[in-house]
Amino acid sequence: MKYFLAHDLGTSGLKSSLFSSEGQLIKSVLQEYQADIQGREATQNPLILLHAVIKGSRQLANVVNNQDILAMSFSAQMNACLLVDENGDPLHDTLIWADTRAEEQADQLIDKLGFDRIYKITGNRASANYSLYKLMWLRDHKPEIYKKAYKMLQAKDYVSFKLTGNMVTDHSDASGTGAYDINQGIWSDEIINAANVEKDLFPDIINSIEPVGKLLPEMAEQMNLSGDTLVVAGGGDGPCATVGAGCIGNDEFYLTYGTSAWIGGTTDEPVFDPNYALFCFSHIIPNKFMPLGTMQAAGTSYKYLKDLFEDFELSAKDYDQLANEVPIGSDGLVYLPYLIGERSPIWDPKASAAFIGIRHHHDKSYYARAVLEGIAYNLEWILQSFRQTKDIKEMVITGGGAISPILRQIFADILNVDFIVPQNIQESTSIAAAIMAGIGSGYYSDFSVLEKFLIMKDKTKANLENVEKYQNYIPIFQKSYLNLKDVMTDLDNLR
C-alpha cells in the first residue's frame, strides 16, 4: 500500500490528511491559526502556514511506514499577495484574499483598459481582492518593500518553495491573481504592462498535477519523511473543492460552505457572465475551467454572531438547533452577510453587514436563523446567474458547515435545489490534493481515480412548500441591499 499527504491550507487552520492509494482516509490532523482581519485589511504571517505543514506532515509520517508516502500536495486559499526576496524570504505579512485595500488600484486599471476588456482577458472582474491589485497597492504604499521584491507568491507556492527550493505557481492560482490570460493559459502582457508592474515578479506556471520537486534534505528530516517524497504543485481551494465534490465532468455543479462559501462547477470552456456576477478560474484538471460565484462571510457570519452573544461554549450545531425553532423568514428579520464587503454577486468592497426588521421579541434563535437565511439568500442570488445558461436542479454540497442537516434544508429550500451529500463532506479539498499527489507521483493516470475516494451517502431534497414561502423573502433580501448601498458607501467613507 502506498500513501499520499494532502494539506488543506485554509484561512483559519490547516487540515493535514493521509490517504491510502485505495482512496481511504487514514488520519487527519487539524491545526488552528489566525489571520489578522481589521476592516478592509486582512493579513497573515506566511511562516505560520509553513510551520503548520511541517508539523502536520511529521504527525502523519508516524502513522505508516514513511517510505510508503510517495508525495504530498496542497489545496490552498487563493488571491494572495506575498512578496519575497531573492532568497525566498517574506518581505511582509501576506495580503490574503479578504484584503480589499486596493480598490483605487483596481479603478486605475479599469480606467486604462476598460472593465469589459479586463474581464474578457482574465475571466475575472478588476477587484481589490485579486493579487495584482494588492501588488499595485504595495508598489504605491510600501515602495521600500516593492523595490526589494523578487517574486509574488501564493500561500501554497511559498510553502512548496521552502520545501523544495523551487519557486513556481499553478494555473488555478495564477488565474486568481487578475494578471492571467484565461484564454491562453499564460501571464497577460497586456494586463501586466497596463498595471505598470514588473512581469519578472510573476513565477513560472506549471500544471497542478506536476511535481515542484523532491523535499530538501533538511525539510525531509524535519518532517520525518523520505528525501524521495515528491511535492506536487496543487491548486487553489475553489478548483480543488470542485474535484473533491465529484464535479469533474462538463456542467457539474456544487456548493461549498466554510469560512467563505461559493457555488462552482466544471466546464470545458471559460464561462463569461454578461452580468459579471460570476468569474472563472483555470482548473486543476488540465484544459478544464471552473466558473464560480463566491461570497466572503459565510461561516464568518456565524462566528461573528456567536462572539456577539458571547456564546463561546456553544457550537455551530447548537446554533443550528436554535435556528430550527424559528419559522421560515425569521419573522421578518433579514440579515445582509457583508461583514467584509462582498464579491459575488454585488462586488462591493464597501458593503457592510446589517440586520433589518428587528422587533423586540427577536431573540438569539431568530438571529441564528436569519444569519443562515441571509447567507443562503446571497448564494441564491449567485445561482440566478448560473441559471441564465444552465438548468441546475441538483448540486453536491460540501464543507464543514454542510454537515448540519438543518443548514442543508434551509439552503435547499431557498436555492430550490436537491443536495447530494458525500460521505467525506469535510474532505473535498483534501481528496483533490491527495489525487494530485498521486497523479504527480505517477501512481495514478488521471482524475478518474476519484471514484476510489468519493462515496455519495445522502440527499437533502427541497421542500416545495418551503420553496414557495421563501419566494416572498428573496426579493426583499436583494432590495434591502440595493436600497442601503449608498448608505453603506457613505458609512465606509467615514470610517
Describe it for me?
This protein has 495 residues and is an alpha/beta fold. It folds into two domains: 3-233, ATPase, nucleotide binding domain (Nucleotidyltransferase, domain 5), CATH 3.30.420; 236-495, 2-Layer Sandwich (Nucleotidyltransferase, domain 5), CATH 3.30.420.40. Helix content is 38%, strand content 22%. It has 18 helices and 25 strands. Strands 1, 2, 3, 6, 14, 15 and 16 form a seven-stranded mixed beta sheet that branches. The chain has a seven-stranded mixed beta sheet with strand order 19-20-18-17-23-24-25. It has a three-stranded antiparallel beta sheet with strand order 4-5-8, with no helix packed on it. A hairpin with a 4-residue loop joins strand 11 and strand 12 (186-187). It is globular, with a radius of gyration of 22 Å. The relative contact order is 0.12.
- Our Rg estimate from Cα atoms comes to 22 Å
How far do the termini sit from each other?
Answer: 58 Å
Number of strands: 25
Structural class, from secondary structure content?
alpha/beta
Count of the separate structural domains: 2
Overall pLDDT score? 95
